[in-house]
Amino acid sequence: MPSRPPRPLSSLRALLTSGAGGGLVLMASAALALAVANSPLADTYFAALQAHVGPLSVLHWINDGLMAVFFLLVGLEIKRELLDGRLRTWPDRILPGVAALGGMILPALVYAAVNRHSPETLRGWAIPAATDIAFALGVLALLGSRVPVSLKVFLTALAIIDDLGAVIIIAVFYTADLSLPMLGGAAVTLAALYGLNKAGVSRLWPYLALGAVLWVFTLLSGVHATIAGVLLALAVPLRLSVGRPDDPTSPLHILEHAVSPWTAFLILPVFGFANAGVSFAGFRPAILLDPVTLGVGLGLFLGQQLGVFGFVLATVRLGWAQRPSGATWAQVYGVAILCGVGFTMSLFIGLLAFAHRPDLEAETKVGVLFGSLACMAAGALVLRLAPQSPAHR
Predict the structure, then answer these.
(1) Which of 159, 187, 234, 260 is the most exposed place for a label (fewest CB within 10 A)?
(2) Does 156 map to a domain?
(3) Comparing C-alpha atoms, which of 218, 212, 166, 157 is closest to residue 10?
């Protein structure tokens, strides 16, 4: 009997088994952006980002257009993991869910404490409350087999739940003046997408066509356009099948596998290159102590590790969940530090919080860069030196 061809991996497992290559590409694109922004090409770099293509600038197309595809992938992964993946049961959700909650609450409190006397900068409270899965998994990939797969799965599940929290925060707290007619158009389009799902339509092109219409309505409504990506993902059908969580015929899986490599190796690197460019011309060391920079940096470095590790420790001690199998507490702490790598989503929220304030955007970028670099270095060092569980050796 001929052997059956292996089923394709979910994008989650492909990311884990591929060494998180997308995270490494994202690191390279951020480093390149910093180099170009501080080179003779700096003026060309910044001018190109502000150049208009049609009704929007290049930077606007990247942050509102390309990133909508990233949010589509986020929505697809959230839906799959909740319905047919590693978060499908409540016991599976407890530990990463509690960890994500701690990783959102504590960083926000740290930022708020630093900026409590400034209502204007306090608006950025959610900036450090985000974990960048691509960067964090990229660091874990560099450590190889020293980190148990259970911790990689835990970090991925945590980041997915964290992304869900970030989507809700963006939708609720970072919207402009709302246009009721455009919201109405978005609602009608969403209803049409829901109707396609209920009618059993499995072809993807009707969903994608209506998704483009939904993006336009959302862009013009005052709600951030990237939310359209998540709403579209929720409408794409996922056919559940016993024993085959990676059924390649499911429309959701087809779209997820199609979008994932483009997101990891093009969209996120382009976003990183467009937004990580900080010019250090005239750099003053005092900017590191400015409220936004300090709040973001401390929120990422201290708030994330205290929130994630503290909530995980309390949950396990209370008997509500078990520590990831084959992992020591030192390794869990190292991963908690890596949760402070908040590059993509932190920059994204910062751009929303301080739109039209280039000075505060610059402070945000410095805080995100320094905080994320500190978390990468400290997390990698802890995981490198952490004793391994005998079960993992």
Answers:
(1) 187
(2) yes
(3) 157
